[in-house]
Design goal:
By secondary structure, this protein is of the alpha+beta class. It contains two helices and eleven strands. The strands form two sheets. Strands 7-6-5-4-10-11 form a six-stranded antiparallel beta sheet, with no helix packed on it. Strands 1-2-3-9-8 form a five-stranded antiparallel beta sheet.
């Protein structure tokens, strides 16, 4: 193996490693975990794994919002189960505490993104019904115990917050039960989570590694050419 080939191999490995670290860091920052089996005591439905949230995230990447939930069993296991991301875009309130039974203290929202196991979804603006829409099924993905979706943030107009300041909560519901007793879990519990944003510094660092490596290869090529002349 020549020196040039060795340097290229080192460079490719370094960039791949840096990319792995970057993606891992973004995922860690974005995802929240929820204890297994922590069904609400007010929930009266079947305690099936696809109604038990293990982790979830909402990430703003440029102009797109990415939603994801991982359950304790395959999505679609329980008939009539579906998943609701509550968004606080600036005028969120605790809408569940006055319901029957009273639940969800600390969970505030002014709109909801509903994702179903059949790959359909809706956005319901609770302050302005004119903004409520049927979501594009092509943007919704289901794989085993995970359901995810990605939509343009313009579909969820602000009610006071910048998109980077939106907060959210996730709760599975059972459609065969009415009222708050249909809510099996909150993730996170008793609070909202912030929308995650990938850090530009991590991306810049990765680009710096790649640029530095390319300069090294170029410098080595010049040295090798000089030595041959």
């Amino acid at each position: 193996m020549t020196v040039k080939q060795a340097l290229k191999l080192i460079l490719s490995g370094t960039i791949a490693f840096a990319a792995t670290l970057l993606l891992h860091g973004v995922a860690q920052a974005a995802s929240i975990t929820d204890p297994a089996g922590d069904f609400l005591f007010t929930y009266t439905g079947v305690q099936a794994g696809d109604l038990d949230v293990l982790s979830s995230e909402v990430t703003l990447n440029g102009t797109q919002l990415f939603f994801s939930a991982t359950l304790a069993a395959a999505v679609g296991t329980t008939p009539s189960a579906f998943y609701v991301f509550g968004l606080d875009r600036g005028q969120g309130t605790q809408r569940f505490v006055t319901g029957t039974p009273s639940v969800g203290a600390g969970v505030v929202f002014d709109s909801v993104v509903i994702l179903r196991p059949d790959g359909t979804g809706n956005f319901n603006d609770l302050l302005n019904s004119a903004n409520s829409i049927t979501l594009n099924p092509a943007s919704i993905s289901i794989s085993g115990s995970q359901i995810s979706a990605i939509f343009d943030v313009s579909l969820f107009p602000s009610t006071g917050f910048a998109a980077v300041d939106y907060t959210w909560n996730l709760w599975p519901r059972l459609g065969s039960i009415s009222g708050n007793a249909a809510i099996s879990d909150f993730a996170p519990d008793a609070s909202n989570a912030s929308v995650a944003v990938p850090e530009p510094s991590g991306i810049a660092g990765l680009l710096a590694i790649g640029f530095g490596g390319l300069m090294m290869v170029g410098r080595t090529r010049r040295i090798l050419n000089v030595s041959k002349s």
